[in-house]
Amino acid sequence: MREAARNVRLLFAARIVRMFAYGLLGVVLVLYLVERGLDDSAVGALLTCTFLGDAAISLWLSTQADRWGRRRTLLVGAALMAVGGGLMAMTGNFWWLLLAATIGVISPTGNEVGPFLAVEQAGLAEVVPATQRTRAFAWYTLAGYGATALGALLAGGLAQLLRHFGWTALSSYAALFWAYGALGMLIGLLIAGLSPAIEAPRSTPLPHAPTFLGLRESRGIVLRLSGLFSLDAFAGGFIVQSFLVYWFRVRFGVGEAALGAVFFGANLLSGLSSLAAVPLARRIGLVNTMVATHLPSNLLLILVPLMPTFGWAATVLWLRHAISQMDVPTRQSYVSAVVPATERSAANGVTGTARQLGTAIAPLCAGLMTPAWLLAGGPFFVAGGLKVIYDLALWRSFRRVRPPEERG
């Protein structure tokens, strides 16, 4: 029992440090690239390559984690964070920035990237009872959003504080990338303390040659879920946090501190909403909770660009975040519940990679929109409409596929 509790604490601590680091960069990434002299097309290309690199690394590592070792896989991810942050801080060369963004587990959205989420959730599902799985994932989600919110809040404030003491905008942003690399090393220290209890069960030998991306029994359901999750993520890719920061800046002319406060509130509300999903999921089921909470949040998303002032737009965004992420712990719990224990890392990795690929394509599509349509909120309308389609398709396809705790 003590060993399980210790593993849970370490997994939560690694998640908190990592999401704090992602929050730091989510606010300043695009601003930093612009200060480095990249034009809009170069920034869009670099963001897309960042998403694609994160997806490739996540897929490669997470689908092998149950065989290689979950702790070992997480250590590799932490090392990539450290290298990526340092390399981004040191150079203004587009190709070096591209390399760092591609392999460095950099998060343009402020949200989870890389192999961590898939492997950590598999480890959590290993050490907590099935009846407590959704609750554990909800607190795990809350911890991440709270840390991201704090990172976003501090990023804007620190950048302005450094400039107050004579730093240039470029050097103040670069300092946050150095901090990101240092936090990657801290994550490695936390991961090193995990015990073998988080690893995949070995009561029956794991197959030496998995049929497809580490999946055997669960291949059909995982691929169907992946297709739907990629649609949802593609829609979300039109409104990643880096874009929202830029949109608020151009549309309303607000500074970094105000933007940091907006996304501090948004991420905090997102995390708190995940706790509300737990009793609702017990009452109506995981899939029904995912859909019933996601639909109204998408309508609020469409309303954001229609607001006349910064205050109103931020308020509607906050209202949206107060319910939009209730589907996150339920989705994560659902995937872990409907696949065998020996395929959890792979299933989480494949579905997570599908989401990353969907997100990666969206910035290029958004880049094809005219500047006037972008400023008018075109990405909000596209994202909201596609997410509604995803919700309806998910409910139609999986409302009868129930996890073990809901059967009978």
Report on this model:
By secondary structure, the chain is mainly alpha-helical. It is 77% helix and 0% strand. It is built from 17 helices and no strands. The longest helix has 34 residues, at 2-35.
Question: Secondary structure elements and their pairing?
Answer:
Blueprint: H1 2-35, H2 40-62, H3 65-68, H4 70-90, H5 94-103, H6 116-127, H7 133-164, H8 169-192, H9 219-236, H10 241-252, H11 256-284, H12 286-303, H13 310-324, H14 327-337, H15 344-367, H16 371-375, H17 378-398
Question: What would the keywords be for this entry?
Answer:
408 residues, mainly alpha, Growth Hormone, Chain: A, 17 helices
Question: Strand portion, in percent?
Answer: under 5%
- Highest CATH level, the class: Mainly Alpha
Q: Under CATH, the topology is which? A: Growth Hormone, Chain: A
Rg from alpha-carbon coordinates:
20 Å
CATH homologous superfamily heading: MFS general substrate transporter like domains
Number of helices: 17
Largest sheet, if any? none
Overall average residue pLDDT: 84
**Number of DSSP-assigned strands:** 0
How many domains make up the coordinates?
A: 1
In short:
With 408 residues, the chain is an all-alpha fold. 77% of the residues lie in helices and 0% in strands. It has one domain: MFS general substrate transporter like domains (Growth Hormone, Chain: A, Up-down Bundle).
